[in-house]
Amino acid sequence: KASIKFAGLNIKGHGSMNFDDARNKWSDIRLMVLQKQIGVLVVGEAHMDDERRDEITRIHGNDLKIFYSKLPDSRNKAGIAVVFNMRITNTIGIQMYEVVAGHAIIIETNWHNDERISILAVYAPNTDSATNAAFWGKIEDFYDRHPRIKKPNILLGDLNMVEEPLDRLPACSDPTAITSSFDSLKCSLQLEDGWTNTYPDTLKYTFKQNISGQRLRHSRLDRIYIRAQDMEHTFEWKIEQTAVDTDHSLVSVRFTSETAPVIGRGRWISPPHLMYDKAIMTFIETEGIRAENMILDLEAQDEWDANHNAQTVWADFKKRFVELARKRSKIVMPHLTKKISELEAKIDIVSNDPELSEDERAITTAMLNEALASLEKHKHKTTRVMAKARNALQGETISRYWSNANKSKSPRDLIQRLMKPQTQSTPQPEYTTSSPEMADMLGIYHGNLQKDPTPPDVTLREQTTARILGNITKKLSEPHCQNLKEKLTDENIEYALKLSANYKAPGLDGISYEIWKLIHARYKNAIAHDRAAFNLIQTLRIVYNDIECNGMAPNTKFSESWMCPLYKKNDRAQMANYRPISLLNTDYKIMSKALTIKL
């Protein structure tokens, strides 16, 4: 189902106001929100005010929208903020209520269809037990005094307390006054600890405290609570390290609803970096040359076999290439990402190892977390350095990069539901939220629009065609007619590939123009150094001419496309209000361009 990711992180202060300073945390927060696809982030110890929020908006306003509450007497203490990722969330109609200044706010925002979702964001006081206990009482009292305000679907943030002794390492209980006050609020709002419900036998911590001369301590202070009836709609509960300079971990969960549409995995697209994978390079060099030789042999034959020809060989090569690429894309990952995954697995093992003493677990977990945080910071730093370099090169010139950086971002447009075709047995409108079913319905609907319900009169059609052609006075010259009769050449196809723009959506096979261009560039480089290589242009020329002479061979899927419906206007649940576009395979589009060049 379609879902949104909620997350919470105590950032331990604002950091430097200078966005070029490495101590500025908001550039790292933005990068983290975008990379991890966080929809809503609750930030504890935000140290926010209007001036700082406006500066963040000036720099990152296309990506982030911030709501906050600060202490009345200081901006450099406590503070709670809620950050919306504008690329994937709807920020229209958001309403904020301040519950406890600088410590708790309620955010109500639009959800699927006309639903509203309420978020209670907290950063609990940590000055003393009495203040923390009173804080939960204030929240409960707020809801009692404002019964019209929606009870929260989700409570998250830094609670600065734990309910169970095992949520601290070494294990110890919090004062009864705190736990009793929080338990009263939890029962009043009907909230449940999502992590404990999902992983009842797993120990994991979100905060590390290293006080000189004392034992190393770990606690699960940062938590997410979900309304009891919404628990079944949550998944992907995570506690993970981030590159933001803080001693807290990020907690997150994905949240959906009963009315959310069921979405598929979408189209697979081959990532360009796979072209530098040794297995992929070897496949192209060996299997590409093998396919090329088979196609050359078939071109020399006099008879055409519908089941074995240049088209079927090309289709088989593409099929095996896509299968290998899909397999390798699940295995091949950057070395840094792989090391991060290995460290996360080690932390889980150590945290739950019953054979280790509390001190051993505390020390080992701390060391592994430090190493993990270091890797995350290195990864973010590398990304920021590359982004800064690219901005220096392209940020001041009109280009694709400049346009993307300066245009406002809008959330993904989902089809929430479609009305099923009405029949005599179903006079009342019925709706579906299943993406596969909606895709089938749209395909049938637009397919029927293109069908002629009555067979055409052949004689009338021929007469009409002759009359229209007779009105055309300008004719092609004999040289032009002769040129059209000639087959495609290598030059036509190479020029067509050159004219094919990068960053365009591929078709069902997931192969982009960039991949074909890279294969061709490697061929030219190999020829310049007297090495054998796969000649893509020659292979495509034979395949295209085979199609022109014999038509498309069956089951090659050469002309198959991915239909994408685009909303036009009026009721979004009506199929008639969507315009379909077809995403064709790139080798098909290269042939179309080559034929256009010949014209």
TrEMBL record:
Q: Which Gene3D superfamilies match?
A: Endonuclease/exonuclease/phosphatase
Q: Which InterPro entries match?
A: Endo/exonu/phosph_ase_sf
Name listed for the protein in its UniProt record: DNase I-like protein
